[in-house]
Fold:
Amino acid sequence: MNILLKTIKVVAVATAIIVSPVLKAGNGVNIEHLGVNNTIVRLTSEGKYLLLPVQESNDDAIINVIVDGELDRKIHVRLAKSKVDYTVPLDIERYKGHNVVLNIVTTQDRSSVRDAKEDACWNRFEVTDSFDTSNREKFRPAYHHTPLYGWMNDPNGMFYKDGIWHLYYQWNPFGSKWQNLAWGHSSSEDLVNWTHHPAAIEPNGLGMVFSGSSAIDSTGSAGFGKGAVVAMYTSADVSQIQSLASSIDGGETFTVYPGNPVLTLDSEARDPNMFWDKDKNRWVLVLAHALEHEMLIFTSPDMKEWTLESSFGKGLGAQDGVWECPDLFELSVDGLDKTKWVLLCNLNPGGPFGGSATQYFTGDFDGRKFTADTDAEGNVPTKWLDYGKDHYATVSFSDAPDGRRTVIGWMSNWQYAPEVPTTQFRSANTLPREIGLFTDSKGEIHASSTPSPEVDALRDKLVKSVGRTNIGKKGRTYELPELCEIDFEIDPLKGRSIDIVFSNAAGEEVTMIYDPAESTLSFDRRRSGITDFSQDFAAVTTAPTFNDGGRLALRIFIDRSSIEVFESHGRFAMTNLVFPNSPYNRLSINSDGGNARISDLKIYSIKSNR
Ligand code: FRU
Structure:
């Protein structure tokens, strides 16, 4: 809800003294406590931001932002009670020339303990022209996308247009926990260096802005103009309903469609994902029928009138938790002429290692109905796009160039995402990945994930290169730069398991074990560093290597708080967060009971891009 700029008016302070027994003035605000749980904060000077002091362990206070007497927005902020953890900026530049009053309700819980006026926050409210986003927290990733500050979950509405990749995301700019969801926005020319933009779609009277997708409407079918970018997302309040917003400046700013909602159901449904069916000249929409564990498929000529065509999923695959964040796309199999469709069904909880994970089905789609492939026994197999604990809500960019299917995931897990040991920001995205399809030795089709080619440009120096070396029990050790990519191939020779250990001076380590007998690679982060913020964090994750116990080539990416492992052809990917007290600076590879060989070992340092 943007307010038109009018004349500049600064609120008079004097009148407030008469009506309020407790008053604090200064820092560009005037504060009047009205009772145990209600405080009025008036802006008395202009600036770009009003800093709001946060204490994360608190419950939310409700801040009603009143502009010229009208409610402009309602935000939930964990205003500090006993200590200020950090501040978050409320953009007040947009209110220039208007009277701004915050009517703040702290909850019963706070007031029953003590009078709200004692709270630590009030002295730290401040009108300012700058907000420091140069976050130097030690776990802030150096080359993965993160929000500048605040909470982030799912990637949303990603698309590629005119040489720019656009990434939107579930964003709470008012604290590092889930709340106040808007679509944050970043863009990139190369998928690895990101520019941050203001929020693209903000909550309104229909609710918060939950996940969704964007598509380029090249025919202008939706009435927003040819080439408009149209976002479809879930407006979430008491219910979840589907809304549209359009952009005619290439995704920078969006105008919410006045006829929203465009699709309503009488049950929980969210995360609309749409694409243009060029054969049938109409839009296809996949919507997560979350609690029913199914995906609903609709079609429409104009994105506004939707017809339910079919549903997919009841009783199939992993059925725990809720089904969320779908995506549906066609890919060639083994890079040949044959194609198959892939339906991504993120689910939470119910992932293979607890909590959130990206399940997918391969199959056929006739424009109305998706039918999943079956295995040799006639069952629909459960398949996972990544075998770590920290890969969720993964969806793809619309209109990626050269037929690419490029995806990005949220690198966390709902089991502990709000508790991870970071402060000013929470959560990062995975590296961008290219999805393909391959056939395994049993004839089953699986999705592959490889780092997008642009990721190679992150390499700084080749710090170690080893052609071929035999390893035994004692193994080999290599020094690691803090930010790095490590590539190598293991030949298990005698078929015994091989340990790949990343460790630091503090004795913390991540141990990966390649077990050729089982054709698995496991990742043990139980002693990886800080793990005690959640009982669900310390864990071992295991991936099938799809190589019948033979040679295994890996690409491993280490950032400050994540490790991503890829089989070099993408046959599996594994993404796990880690919080070591100091960076892992040693890699040791040894063979449990006999000889093995590693070849083409390359260790690259990676540039920090912040
Ligand atoms: C998945 C999800 C979505 C929802 C969003 C809300 O992580 O639960 O289903 O739209 O997060 O932030």
Helices lie at 14-19, 108-113. The pocket of beta-D-fructofuranose is lined by residues 153-154, 170, 181, 210-211, 234, 270-271, 324-325, 393 (CB under 6 Å). Confidence is low (pLDDT under 50) at residues 1-21. Residues 229 and 554 are 38 Å apart (CA to CA).
